[in-house]
Amino acid sequence: MNQSTIPQAGFIDPSGGNAAAVRDLAADVIDQLLEQLEAADNRSPLPEGSTIPSNTIPDSSRSQDDVLDDLETIVTDSMNPAHPGYIGHMDTMPTTVSVLGDLVASAVNNNMLSVEMSPVFSELEVQLTEQIADEFGLGPDAGGVLSSGGSLANLHALSVARNQAFDVHKKGLAGVDRKPVLFASEVAHTSLQKAAMLLGLGTEAVIPVETDDNSRMDPAALDQRIERAKRNGNAPFCIVATAGTTTTGNIDPLPAIRDIADEHDLWFHVDAAYGGALVFSDAERDRLDGIDAADSVTFNPQKWCYVAKTCAMSLFADADVLQEEFRIGAPYMRGDDAIPNRGELSVQGTRRAEILKLWLTFQHLGRDGLEQLIDEGYRLTTVICDRIVEHDSLELASKPELNLVCFRAVPEWCPPEERDDLNDRLQQTLLSEHDIFVSAPTYRDSRWLRVVLLNPFTGAETIQRLLSGIDEFLNEK
Predict the structure, then answer these.
(1) Which residues neighbour 156 within 8 Å (Cβ) at sequence distance 6 or greater?
(2) Which positions ≥6 away from 234 have C-beta within 8 Å?
(3) How far apart are CA 361 and CA 195, in angstroms?
(4) Rounded to whole angstroms, how far apart are CA atoms 283 and 368?
(5) Structural domain boundaries of the chain?
(6) Helices 64-76 and 19-37 sit at what angle, rounded to 10 degrees?
(7) How far apart are CA 231 and CA 172, in angstroms?
(8) Which secondary-structure segment (H or E) carries 356?
(9) pLDDT tens per residue, the chain (477 residues)?
(10) Less Cβ crowding at N or C end of the chain, within 10 Å?
(11) How far is C-alpha 109 from the chain's CA centre?
(12) CA torsion, points 91, 456, 148, 444, in degrees to nearest 10?
């Protein structure tokens, strides 16, 4: 094939004919990236502005130096979760091996659509999802499929739940005489509404359930909502419990919700996208008691297991349900009785081998490493919470159950109607003057500040800078 207009390192010659040019390009990119990452604490957690490179497609190949200059600017102007002061979202620096795993997965470019196109990765995904399902106690028949994010994982689980409840796998919802509805707490993730919309149920099919003072679903309110839905002629089919709410990091009472699901014969799904990582901590895993009774679980190792984005999964207590209620065969792909084609069982068809970087992270950190990271997050959480509770001008949104702290400034001298603006200004001051980024979510119609203690290099100095910055801000007003 004629490649006369292609740069010498445009592709890696499988016979090694351009090895020197490829290695030169790879070394330049890697060296430049490592220099930036190794000095990430010299850049702000968030850039003040971003320079966007030219989006035109050049007529001919640009020089390697010019491309590298633009690439350097892209990294410099991007969000900087490697900075120890980046503590505002469930994003953190990834494990080194997961970054390298991404490189390897991209290089071999296998397709998780079928076993034939990803023989090693397909089997590895089957084995590892079964093992993780076992960590949750889902039983000997459990398994799952990886996906690109928790929203897709929730969509997958709710699709299976809907199909099983109403037998609409082939004929659709037209023959269903009652409106299908599901239940989730009023602070559950918005991906549930998206899933309901995509499933033809409509966003209003997700019935919100009241929460207690600690942002956890109220079981009594749940039972009342279910009974009311039945009286109104609706058809309840699923309850979604959250193990790690996005804003406050709380866990719904899983055993009580499980009992209600059993009583009403409803599918029990647990969105443990964030909190699922607790299974790797002996000290904290009891917080997930009751998850073993789930019919399905969403889990995102890209969060608290530090795997580079994206890496999420939907797990099912009965893996055969995917064959019965979701599988769409691909006749153009060779089948395998031992390992089903992953693309036939998942929302996505073509999919990269995300399983590699998950496997590598587990191999490199081990259980001990994962447990230490989780336990350290709790230690720092306790330090911050104790200071907030003692502070006359700060209050917690709820009692934290994970490594999230949601709080706000409520000094007596600030009228209640001005507190949202005060906390917005506090967030900006922490970033601009102290290199601390905390997010500013809206929770119960008010502005709050949120700290997520994920970064392995966030320590006592960062926490002290956060607390001192808050005090300085409040004392200047």
Answers:
(1) 145, 147, 314, 326, 346, 347
(2) 178, 179, 180, 181
(3) 30
(4) 12
(5) 104-361
(6) 20
(7) 24
(8) helix 355-390
(9) 999 999 999 999 999 999 999 999 999 999 999 999 999 999 999 988 888 888 889 999 999 999 999 999 999 999 999 999 999 999 999 999 999 999 999 999 999 999 999 999 999 999 999 999 999 999 999 999 999 999 999 999 999 999 999 989 888 998 899 999 999 999 999 999 999 999 999 999 999 999 999 999 999 999 999 999 999 999 999 999 999 999 999 999 999 999 999 999 999 999 999 999 999 999 999 999 999 999 999 999 999 999 999 999 999 999 999 999 999 887 766 666 678 899 999 999 999 999 999 999 999 999 999 999 999 999 999 999 999 999 999 999 999 999 999 999 999 999 999 999 999 999 999 999 999 999 999 999 999 999 999 999 999 999 999 999 999 999 986
(10) N
(11) 24
(12) -40
Q: Report CA 37 to chain centroid distance, whole Å.
A: 22
Helix locations, 38-95, DSSP H:
64-76
- The per-residue b/e assignment along 338-347, b for 16 or more CB within 10 angstroms, e otherwise, is eebbbbbbbb
Angle between the 355-390 and 96-108 helix axes, to the nearest 10 degrees? 150
Half-sphere exposure of 462 (CA within 13 A, CB side): 24
Q: Which two tokens stand for residue 5?
A: 């207009």
- Whole-model pTM: value is 0.96
The contacts of residue 203 (CB under 8 Å, 6+ apart) are 193, 194, 196, 197
Q: Are strands 449-452 and 206-209 parallel, antiparallel or unpaired?
A: unpaired
Q: Which long-range contacts (CB under 8 A, 24 or more apart) does 103-107 make?
A: 104/356, 105/352, 105/353, 105/354, 105/356, 105/357, 106/352, 107/12
Q: How far, in Å, CA of 112 to CA of 196, rounded?
A: 26
Q: In this structure, which CATH number among 3.55.40.20, 3.40.640.10, 3.30.1300.10, 2.40.50.100 belongs to the domain 104-361?
A: 3.40.640.10
